[in-house]
Design goal:
Helix content of chain A: 55-70%
Number of strands of chain A: 0
Number of domains of chain A: 1
Distance between the termini of chain A: 56 Å
Largest sheet of chain A: none
Shape of chain A: elongated
Strand content of chain B: under 5%
Oligomer: heterodimer
Order of helices and strands of chain B: HHEEHHHHHHHHHHHHHHHHH
Structural class of chain A: mainly alpha
Structural class of chain B: mainly alpha
CATH class of chain A: Mainly Alpha
Largest interface: A-B, 34 and 38 residues
Largest sheet of chain B: 2 strands, antiparallel
Chain lengths: 116, 519
C-alpha cells in the first residue's frame, strides 16, 4: 500500500507546530522543543523526498537484481542535519541551564535585560 | 607556487578548521605556544586569501572551479554522467572579494586579541572558536553547492554563538547566546528546507546545475522566500535584526568585528542566490524593491536605535546594523533594474559591494576602539566615562577616523562607497537617496556624541596610559585600509570591486557554463 503524500503533510504540520511553539511559548525549554520540532519536520521532509514505495536500502553490494532503491542523497543530508541539530540543541540547552543559574527562572518575560 | 594557488581555495577552509581543533591541544603547552600557533594559522590563511584573490582578479574575476579530489581546477563532470555530483568550490570575483574581507577582519581580530585577551581566562576556547568561525565563513563564500552552504552556515552559527556565550559567568552573554542561537538555528532550518524543496524538484544540489534547471515554478518561489527570510535573518536586516545588537554587544570586542564579517557572508549568500541561482527566472524588479524596502527600514531603524543607546557597544552594534542596509540598498537597486541593465544599476551594485569591504574595515576599527575604551574605563556606560583623550591621543584619532568613515564623511572609505549608492539610488528614486543621506548625517551626530562622552571632558583620576603596541598595530592597519581606500577609491573599484559586481550582474552564464560545459 502506498502512503502517498501523508509524510509531507506530517512534515509541514511538525514545522508549523514548531514555529507556533517558538513564537508563543514563554518557557525557554519549550522554545528549544519548538526549534527541535521544526528540525524534525525538515528532516522528515528530506527523508520523504528520497523515499520510493517498496524500495530497499541503497546498498549495491549483494543487492537483488531489478529492485527499487530509495535515494541515498537525502539520507546523507538528513544524517548531516541530525548531527548539526544535536550540536545546536545541546548548545541551546546549555545556555538555558546557565540562564537558569543567573536569573533563577526560565520565563522569557523575566529574562530580558537586553532590550532597546 | 601554481600548485599552492590551485589549492588555495580549499586550504582556506582546511587550515583554520584543522587549526581550530589543534588549539585546545596546544593550549596545554602554554599561552605563548598557543598564541604563536593561532597567529601563524591566521597569517597563513590570510596569505592564501591574498593568493586566491590575486589569481581571480588577475583573470579579471572570471570564475574558477576547484573539484575536491580532482587535483585543482579541473573537469567537473565524471565521464558519462550528466548531473554534476562532485564536491566543488566555485570561486568568482565576488567570492574572492568576500574572502579578502574575511581575511582582513579575522587577521586583525586575532592579532588584536593577543594583547586584548592577555590577562583574561578562556583564551583557548576563544581562539578555537575564532578559527572555527573563520573556516565556516570562508566555506560559505567559496562553496559551489547548496547543501555545503547550509553546513558552513551552521558551522558559523554554532561558532558565533560559542563566541558570544563562552564566558558563562556573565549573565547577559547567556541571554544573548540563547536568543542568537535559537534564531540562527531557525534561519539555518529555513535554508535547509529550501534546499530540500530545490533538490526534490531538480535532483541536484550544485548551485550551477540548479541555476541551469530552475524554471521559476511556484515551489521555486517558496524556496526563494525561505532562503530570503533565512539569510536576511542571519544578516541582521530589519525586521529580523533583534538578535544583532545583542550578539555584537555581548561578544568580546574583537569578535564583534568578526561577527559582522559573518553577517556579511550571509548577505553574500543572499546575493549569490538572487543573482546566480535565480537570476532572471523570477520577477527581479519586485524582488529588488523588496530588498530596497528592507534596506531603508534597516538603515532607518539602525540609526535611530543607535541614537538612544547609552551602552557604547550596543550603540556601535546598531551602527553596524544600519550599514547592512546600505549594502542591501545598493544591490537592491541593482537587482530592481537588472532586466534593462542601465549604467546606474551597475554603479549601485559597485557601491553596495564596495561598502561591504569599507564597512568591515571601519566597523572593525570602531569595535576595537570600543574594546580599548571598555578596558581603560571598566564600564560600557557612556555617561560614566570621559576624558580619555588626555592619555589616549592616538586612540581618539583612530576613533574619529572610524566614525567619520562609517558616517560617510570624505575623504574616508565610507564616503567612496556611499557616494556611489546615493548617486545610483537617486536615479531610481530621489527619495531613496534622501533617506540614506539623512541617516548618514544622523549617524555622524551619534558618533560625535560618543566621542564627546568618551574622549572629551576633564581628566579622570587613575587613568591608564596609551594602549599597548599589540592592540595599536591592528587598529592602525584597519585605519590605513580606511584611509587608503578613501583616498584612492578609483583604483580599488577598478581592480577588485568591478570584477565582483560583474560576477553577480553579468556572470550567471559563465558560472553555470564552467560546471556544466558549453559556457
Amino acid at each position: 500500500m502506498s502512503i502517498g503524500n501523508l509524510p509531507f503533510v506530517v512534515a509541514v504540520l511538525l514545522v508549523a507546530f514548531g514555529i507556533y511553539t517558538f513564537l508563543f511559548k514563554r518557557n525557554l525549554i519549550k522554545l528549544v522543543i519548538g526549534v527541535s520540532l521544526v528540525e524534525t519536520g525538515v528532516n522528515l521532509f528530506l527523508v520523504t523526498l528520497g523515499y520510493r514505495t517498496a524500495g530497499i536500502a541503497p546498498i549495491y553490494t549483494f543487492a537483488p537484481e531489478a529492485e527499487r532503491m530509495v535515494l541515498p542523497t537525502p539520507q546523507a543530508l538528513t544524517l548531516t542535519s541530525i548531527v548539526i541539530g544535536l550540536a545546536t540543541t545541546a548548545l541551546l540547552l546549555s545556555f538555558a541551564v546557565f540562564i537558569h543559574r543567573h536569573y533563577g527562572t526560565l520565563d522569557v518575560r523575566k529574562v530580558k535585560e537586553l532590550q532597546g | 607556487m601554481t600548485a599552492l594557488t590551485n589549492h588555495a581555495s580549499v586550504l582556506l577552509i582546511a587550515i583554520p578548521l584543522l587549526g581550530a581543533f589543534a588549539v585546545p591541544l596546544l593550549g596545554k603547552l602554554g599561552r605563548g605556544t598557543r598564541n604563536t600557533f593561532v597567529g601563524l594559522i591566521a597569517l597563513i590563511t590570510a596569505a592564501f586569501a591574498g593568493l586566491l584573490a590575486a589569481s581571480v582578479f588577475g583573470r579579471a574575476g572570471a570564475p574558477g572551479l576547484y573539484v575536491l579530489g580532482g587535483g585543482g581546477f579541473g573537469i567537473p563532470l565524471p565521464t558519462g554522467l550528466t548531473v554534476p555530483i562532485r564536491i566543488i568550490l566555485e570561486i568568482d570575483g565576488m567570492s574572492a572579494f568576500m574572502a579578502l574581507i574575511t581575511a582582513l577582519v579575522t587577521l586583525t581580530g586575532a592579532f588584536f586579541s593577543f594583547s586584548y585577551w592577555k590577562d583574561r581566562s578562556g583564551g583557548t576556547l576563544f581562539y578555537s572558536l575564532l578559527l572555527l568561525l573563520t573556516a565556516g565563513i570562508f566555506g560559505m563564500e567559496l562553496t559551489g553547492d547548496m547543501f555545503n552552504f547550509f553546513v558552513f552556515l551552521e558551522i558559523t552559527s554554532i561558532a558565533a554563538c560559542g563566541l558570544i556565550g563562552f564566558r558563562v559567568w556573565l549573565r547577559n552573554s547567556q541571554e544573548a547566546g540563547f536568543k542568537v542561537m535559537a534564531l540562527y538555528t531557525l534561519s539555518g532550518l529555513f535554508v535547509l528546507l529550501a534546499v530540500g524543496l530545490l533538490y526534490g524538484q531538480y535532483g541536484g544540489l550544485n548551485i550551477a546545475y540548479l541555476a541551469s534547471a530552475l524554471t521559476g515554478s511556484a515551489i521555486d518561489l517558496v524556496a526563494l522566500g525561505l532562503l530570503l527570510t533565512g539569510l536576511a535573518l542571519k544578516a541582521g536586516a530589519v525586521p529580523l535584526h533583534m538578535w544583532a545588537p545583542d550578539a555584537y554587544g555581548e561578544a568580546p570586542a574583537p569578535m564583534s568585528a568578526v561577527l559582522v564579517a559573518n553577517s556579511q557572508a550571509s548577505l553574500y549568500g543572499l546575493f549569490r542566490i538572487l543573482f546566480t541561482l535565480f537570476g532572471l527566472t523570477i520577477s527581479v524588479a519586485a524582488l529588488g524593491w523588496i530588498l530596497i524596502v528592507l534596506a531603508l527600514l534597516t538603515i532607518f531603524v539602525g540609526v535611530t536605535m543607535a541614537l538612544i543607546q547609552s551602552d557604547i557597544k550596543r550603540l556601535i552594534a546598531y551602527g553596524a546594523v544600519s550599514q547592512i542596509g546600505y549594502m542591501l540598498l545598493g544591490v537592491g537597486v541593482g537587482l530592481a533594474v537588472s532586466v534593462a541593465k542601465p549604467d546606474y544599476g551597475f554603479i549601485a551594485m559597485q557601491g553596495g559591494i564596495f561598502h561591504m569591504l569599507n564597512d568591515a574595515a571601519c566597523i572593525g576599527l570602531l569595535f576595537f576602539v570600543s574594546g580599548v575604551i571598555i578596558r581603560a574605563t571598566g564600564t560600557r556606560d557612556l555617561n560614566r566615562m570621559g576624558g580619555l583623550a588626555h592619555s589616549m591621543k592616538w586612540t581618539s584619532v583612530l576613533f574619529m577616523i572610524g566614525a567619520f568613515a562609517l558616517a560617510g564623511v570624505p575623504p574616508f572609505n565610507g564616503f567612496a562607497s556611499k557616494f556611489l549608492i546615493y548617486e545610483a539610488a537617486f536615479k531610481l528614486s530621489p527619495f531613496l537617496s534622501v533617506i540614506a543621506i539623512l541617516s548618514s548625517i544622523l549617524l555622524l551626530a551619534v558618533f560625535v556624541k560618543v566621542f564627546q562622552a568618551a574622549f572629551l571632558g576633564p581628566k579622570p583620576e587613575g587613568l591608564s596610559s596609551e594602549v599597548p603596541m599589540g592592540m595599536m598595530v591592528p587598529m592602525v592597519a584597519l585605519a590605513l585600509v580606511v584611509v587608503v581606500f578613501g583616498l584612492f577609491p578609483g583604483f580599488f573599484v577598478d581592480k577588485i570591486v568591478t570584477p565582483a559586481a560583474n560576477a553577480l550582474w553579468y556572470g550567471r552564464d559563465a558560472y553555470i557554463g564552467l560546471v556544466l560545459g558549453g559556457g
